[in-house]
């Protein structure tokens, strides 16, 4: 019996841990192949490839991000191979299982919950006695003698003993692509919390894999070339000693591999943070932290225990170490969170300056308490995956649409880190809050129709400049200080230059420096580099090298003083010098900038 395990990943770089767990458990008894695609692949291409594999059984791993595309593939397969057995599994079909079998008559079986043992038992019955009523955790159709078809949902299977499961990380066919794809890894299953918007709240208790097997698998992956391993544990740091042992092991054996974890920040122990601050090499760890809301009433309503003060201390301590990037998550549309309340939540979290702030919208996942209690809060939501909300009693659709605009520019600008200097100036000194900046800019973006067209890097800069120059030529801040567009423009120029690895061929603003003046600056920088700094002089760049690898721009304020002290001073102007790759003896591999103080032209 030929078996193919398949899924449609969100992106090519993603890999399916679920398929590998199923194959590892059953390959000793059955001929199993893995076939991974993406949700962007044409359905015809996917079906053609699956058809060529000539399987007797095809199993699909289903999630909210791929279920509708998977159904399209299933429809086509059933038509061209009427006798094939089609099996679904995964979190999307493990709830409302009867409803799925009613909606999808082309599907033969659904594996509910943990699938390793259930799927193996199903294959055993398919290849022998077909006594499906014995397969715990299975849903299927039973045809009676009178022609009546009944949907049967067997009792759930007891939780697996994780110590009995074979490793899903030892397939030779995975090795060639390990360096270019994300490896998903679990050290535990289950979650200790009961957040009502999350599927993990349904499973009670946390189980752990054997520590020595975990370490052995991680070493194997690193040795085989893995570059990014994402731990899928719902709360990696729930057991202090376990997490600390893994952290220590990874620090000692990382060899350049990067590791990402989901952590609960307000329970992170100080001694763990101290250990990471002292011993973790910069850049090898990334933390994903679900904040979701800072509204106490909201958190209580969704049974989410969270101490934001402790969370803040953890995030800031990690940030101060400079070792670990942090990705913080928010959910718009939770109970008791209206537009103004969410604005406060956003600003509370943005104040922590995470490297990435993901703004998501509540999804009414099948099986969750939020979906069961949807009417209580007046929720309306999409009938099909991803079941995103369209509104509730206190957050109408119009507010959701506005917050969508915040999400759009937040992703393009802050999370992409394309102009951090300019953005921080704007949110800290110009606009009432970070949320107000992203909201006003998002509204402007939408009003111009830019959401309908693509953009290059320079477009992002020119569009922000259009917004600022049209809407905010001059504005008094809360403390009475008047800010000038010239400062923002100077910071945007710095950010633009730093976005390039090589000298840019064009700029998005009008470069007004005369060619003769530019040439004289290059000559002075070559002849008197010590005027800039000892570090700049040590580069040893001649006139020709500077012409080839450097850009200069005159800024009407003291950039060095602003970056060091946060003070905007126009007593001195600045010559900004940016050096790019290939810059002579220094072998510069990325853009580096220097400043030269100038006497303002009005005082000359």
TrEMBL record:
InterPro entries in the cross-refs: BchE-like, Cobalamin-bd, Cobalamin-bd_sf, DUF4080, Elp3/MiaA/NifB-like_rSAM, Methyltransferase_Class_B, rSAM, rSAM_horseshoe
Keyword Metal-binding recorded: yes
Native organism: Paenibacillus albus
SMART domains according to UniProt: Elp3 (SM00729)
Key words, A-Z: Iron, Iron-sulfur, Metal-binding, S-adenosyl-L-methionine
Gene3D superfamilies per UniProt: Cobalamin-binding domain (3.40.50.280), tm_1862 like domain (3.80.30.20)
Record GO terms (molecular function): 4 iron, 4 sulfur cluster binding; catalytic activity; cobalamin binding; metal ion binding
Cellular component aspect of the GO annotation: cytosol
Protein name, UniProt field: DUF4080 domain-containing protein
